[in-house]
Design goal:
Elements: H1 9-22, E1 34-48, E2 51-58, E3 67-70, E4 74-81, E5 89-92, E6 117-124, E7 130-136, E8 146-152, E9 167-176, H2 181-190, E10 199-202, E11 211-212, E12 215-216, E13 221-224, E14 229-236, E15 243-247, E16 252-257, E17 260-267, E18 270-272, E19 277-283, E20 290-297, E21 312-318, H3 338-346, E22 365-377, E23 394-400, E24 403-405, H4 415-420, E25 430-431, H5 452-455, E26 461-463, E27 465-469, E28 473-481, E29 490-494, E30 499-506, H6 511-514, E31 525-526, E32 528-531, E33 535-543, E34 547-553, H7 556-561, E35 564-569
Parallel strand pairs: 1-4, 3-8, 9-14, 13-21, 22-28, 24-26, 25-27, 27-35
Antiparallel strand pairs: 1-2, 4-6, 5-7, 7-8, 9-10, 11-12, 14-19, 15-18, 15-20, 16-17, 16-19, 20-21, 22-23, 28-33, 29-32, 29-34, 30-31, 30-33, 34-35
Length: about 600
């Protein structure tokens, strides 16, 4: 008889705690509160790598303020835009039940907040617990306009389905750019140039791998006490990269992803893509000293374009006098090793929880959505798509089923407002089809470099791409990454809903083979699902939140290039299943004049 494998102490304790958590308990009724903040968006000068850069931030700080709420609270955030750019704030992962008006996407759910203007966001936080975040939803500025959004259980941290940690720490992985981010975004969107970030960051600190004239940059320091347990609330706020996060000499016990609890999963590395959040417990059980915590950006191998490798590192520092001790460094994965992120994501399963909805056993609609790149002729021009020398006549775009999202310049009304008042603008929507225009070997690496083979497959069009769903529709989407002009993974974010992640795999999805792999018992729930590089993922969700919701890749370059669509969820049969009118103080074109310019 095989001897049972030993279980790490933290995981074992969590299991015991979970049994207690799920037992019948009578708890006092918690009183919902109002959490109010003022966000002043402005520009400040910051100096890194010997260069001063004008940076757009909230309240003069990077990262921006952390918002702490208790489940059931109402949130009020006054945004004062003192920057020179249009602005919106998106509450990433907050479901905004019956409140799509507060989702914060320019020209999708609202008019942008113009310079020298302000707007107040009001929304409730219900039936959600864990780590989410907020960020600008205008081109490029998410890199510096962002912060954590922490939701505690209604009856306090003692109700966590794991031992209450000694401390909780937001860990925001990001990028340092010394460029004008709106200009970078414009170049990417128009395919007239590109740029790359200069360094990776942990909580806006570049770390000692970088220096200015020999003086090392400051790194993030996490002070710990021996034997204590710490809850790291990890957020990837980067524009361009998935990251591998490791702490030398320590392990993580993952307990939640995307503000949804998972069964405890022990690992020495956390792969995290843009838009994802991971809650992980770390026990300070190593020999007292100093240990590097490293965030390494990953990227696909050649023939994909190779970016400079720009990791960052901070320090976990035990209490006591260890300042003269050289920190221990972790052994990092290879930057091209996508098996690590695949293994991590495919091993997560949901923890049974009273607030967790049931997995749809049957579906009403199925979609097979391919993700890749393509080309179109530059606006207002005719061109030859094939043949050498024609590249300058083409613009590179990102696609879903060979269609690229574009908001027409003529649209002056946000789509949500047009939908609510049933205006003719909604007639401009082009349906996202059930599948691509043709089937082929989607993951053939020979399609990555330009050539006649890929040119025959990547014909693309731009449109106001959308999909309509009746209220309550149970939807299955299989996202298939392709090799068309690139081999990237794709973190796909759905606003207003969580998705059940049923299965994933490398290569081409085959229903006859892969449906049998579906986990319909305890699949993880996420708002951002990572589609593997040259692979697929199957998700299900219930379209039960009426409104106009953005679905897009959270790589900024893919979003700018058009890998997006809007999901329009119709009203249900009752008042409680229908979108209310916009708030009285919400700027709309129907109830008042409001001039805007996009980007």
């Amino acid at each position: 008889m095989k001897k049972p494998r030993s279980v790490p102490a933290v995981a074992a304790t969590i299991a015991a705690t979970t049994i207690f958590f799920l037992s019948d308990m009578v708890l006092p009724t918690a009183v919902a509160g109002i959490v109010e903040h003022t966000f002043v968006v402005s520009q400040v000068n910051m100096t890194h790598l010997c260069k001063e850069t004008l940076v757009t931030v909230v309240n003069g700080q990077l990262p921006g303020p952390t918002i702490y709420v208790t489940e059931g609270d109402s949130v009020v955030v006054h945004v004062i835009n003192n920057s020179p750019y249009n602005m919106t704030i998106h509450w990433h992962g907050v479901k905004q039940r019956l409140n799509c008006w507060a989702d914060g996407v320019p020209m999708i759910t609202q008019l942008p907040i113009l310079p020298s203007h302000n707007l107040t966001y009001k929304f409730d936080v219900s039936r959600q617990e864990g780590t989410l975040w907020w960020h600008a939803h205008v081109p490029g500025l998410r890199a510096t306009v962002h912060g954590a959004f922490i939701i505690y259980p209604r009856h306090g941290p003692s109700m966590y389905p794991f031992p209450k940690p000694h401390r909780e720490i937001p860990i925001i992985i990001g990028e340092w750019w010394d460029a004008n981010l709106t200009e970078v975004a414009r170049m990417v969107k128009d395919d007239t140039g590109d740029a790359n970030f200069r360094a990776s960051t942990i909580n806006a600190k570049l770390g000692d791998l970088y220096n200015c004239s020999g003086i090392k940059e400051d790194g993030y320091v996490l002070d710990v006490e021996p034997g204590r347990t710490y809850l790291l609330r990890v957020i990837n706020a980067a524009l361009y990269s998935e990251y591998y996060l490791k702490i030398a000499g320590h392990k993580f016990t993952v307990v939640a992803i995307g503000a949804n609890y998972v069964k405890p999963y022990t690992t020495d590395v956390i792969p995290i893509a843009p838009g994802e959040t991971v809650d992980a417990l770390v026990v300070a059980d190593a020999s007292p000293g100093r240990y590097y915590v490293v965030a390494l950006p990953s990227q696909p191998p050649k023939p994909d374009f190779q970016s400079p490798v720009l990791p960052t590192r901070g320090t976990v520092q035990y209490s006591g006098n260890h300042s003269d001790v050289m920190p221990m460094a972790p052994e990092m994965p290879d930057e091209h090793d996508d098996a690590i992120t695949f293994y991590f994501h495919s091993n997560l399963t949901s923890l049974h929880h009273p607030k967790r909805p049931l997995v749809p056993a049957q579906v009403d609609e199925r979609m097979f959505v391919t993700l890749g790149l393509g080309t179109i002729c530059r606006q207002g021009q005719s061109c030859k798509r094939l043949g050498k020398g024609n590249e300058r006549d083409l613009i590179l775009v990102a696609t879903m089923n060979n269609m690229s999202f574009e908001l027409p310049d003529a649209i002056m009304t946000p789509l949500l407002e047009a939908h609510y008042y049933n205006t003719s603008i909604m007639d401009m929507l082009q349906e996202l089809p059930d599948g691509p225009p043709r089937m082929y070997n989607f993951t053939d690496p020979a399609l990555i470099p330009p050539g006649p083979k890929e040119a025959q497959l990547e014909a693309t069009s731009k449109s106001l791409l959308a999909r309509r769903f009746r209220y309550g529709t149970k939807v299955e989407v299989v996202f298939q990454s392709t090799a068309l002009k690139q081999g990237e993974s794709n973190p796909m974010h759905l606003h207003g809903h969580d998705m059940f992640v049923l299965a994933q795999g490398f290569g081409n999805y085959e229903a006859e083979r892969d449906v049998a792999k579906y986990n319909l018992v305890d699949p993880p729930m996420v708002n951002t699902v990572l589609v593997p590089r040259l692979g697929w993922v199957a998700v299900r969700f219930v379209a039960d939140n009426p409104g106009v919701w953005f679905m897009h890749c959270h790589f900024e370059f893919h979003l700018l290039m058009g890998m997006a669509a809007v999901f329009v969820v119709e009203n249900g049969p009752t008042v409680d299943t229908s979108l209310p009118p916009p708030p009285m103080d919400f700027p709309t074109l129907v109830h008042g004049s409001y001039f805007q310019t996009f980007l």
